[in-house]
Amino acid sequence: MTSSSVLKEALLVAGLVIALKGARLSGVIATSVDDNMRAEPPAEQRNNNGGWKPPDMEAVRKLYTSRCNIKRVSVNDLDGERFEKEFRYKNPVLITFPNGAADWTVPEKWSQDYLRKNYGQRQMDTGSSLEILRGNGHTNKRHSFIEFTDRLMRQTFQGSDEARSFVWDHGFYREADFSSSLRLPPYLAERDNLDGGTFYLGASGSGVSFHTHNDGRGAMVFGRKRWFVYPATRSPPGGLLPLSVMEWYAHIYPKLPEEERPLECVQEAGEIFYIPEGYYHAVINIGDTIGMALLTTKHVTVVRHLFDRYNMEVVVQLAAYYNDVGGKQEEVRDLFMKVIDHDPYNVHAYFSLGTVLARLNQLEEAEEFYLKARKLVPGYDLVHTEYGRFLVNTGRYDEAVHVLKTVSTIISRHQKT
What we know:
TPR repeats lie at residues 347-380. The protein is an alpha+beta fold. The chain is built from 16 helices and eleven strands. It has two domains: 3-26 and 306-415, Serine Threonine Protein Phosphatase 5, Tetratricopeptide repeat (Alpha Horseshoe); 50-302, Jelly Rolls (Sandwich), CATH 2.60.120.650. It has helices at residues 3-20, 57-63, 80-86, 112-119, 129-134, 145-152, 170-175, 186-189, 245-252, 302-306, 312-324, 329-342, 347-359, 363-376, 381-393, 397-415; strands at residues 71-74, 93-96, 123-127, 141-144, 166-169, 198-202, 207-211, 216-230, 263-268, 272-275, 280-295. Strands 1, 2, 3, 4, 5, 6, 7, 8, 9, 10 and 11 form an eleven-stranded mixed β-sheet that branches. Helix 3 links the parallel strand 1 and strand 2. The chain is globular and about 65 Å long.
């Protein structure tokens, strides 16, 4: 094959990869919790789980942990005064109830049989964690409730870093009128300051990547959900977008020293999780998980945190913006170096720095950062795409074809699921 024909093929493959960009890649998850922190969940199984599937042993082994450094408080021990003093805008808390979800909703209306019977053909908003976050809580993918529960939720959890779809539907929460049976403690209710609510449903391995929002309440009727939390003044290692939560869990979390690990805990069925405004958080579902999310509508503290000079997300966005508007490449380089210095797990900063160094004709250094990004998150499609472009631009067409073909094949396969 001549060099010109290889170049043509590389460019065609690059175009295919760019067109497919956005899907996540599979990979084997590493053990993500130290052995001495891992334990099986409680042995007793609840008799009534609403007909939803509990996690299999592989999901429990990969996703469950007994590690919990977030306070868990009984609703009987938490009044408004204590909540305001210890938790409001200050600390997350898991609130337990003597009778579980029955103390604050009607669990039967969240059962699989009830929802299939009454809303089986209703089209639900679905998507992966990144698709929903990039859409600011919305997605253009829709499946009927029955199709989602029969096909997408029944795919076996393989312990991979592939992003799994879940239901995140604002309209359905209102349509099913869940709010009429909701009985929150007064300090969580804030009737004049809560949004319309969001219905969520997902299987093992589904979940949401790191993000922030207004004061939130995650009320879980059935299932288990593992939370990872950082305070508003500390960007999560690895940054926010573009990693899915399973990519972060597989490749970043195991590398974190103890002092950089998040606050975390597994939320059990019937518990309500309070997350303060501006706190970074990500979640992974363990078994079929169903519930609601409620947010306050008014900002209180987040503006201050957006301008925190130690917030690396602001620096990443500034560097990307400055690069887009034609800023000096040396200054853009220095900004990305600053991000890496503060957050050595930020894969976006590594491959972005590689691109900037390539523009400065510092090719050896550029390739070094591309390879560091690939090592950090081996299955991340955008890293391979940018590295493939680099290989094309430096005349290494055979290598580019190999990199880009591999990526396009993997992405295509996972877009079919």
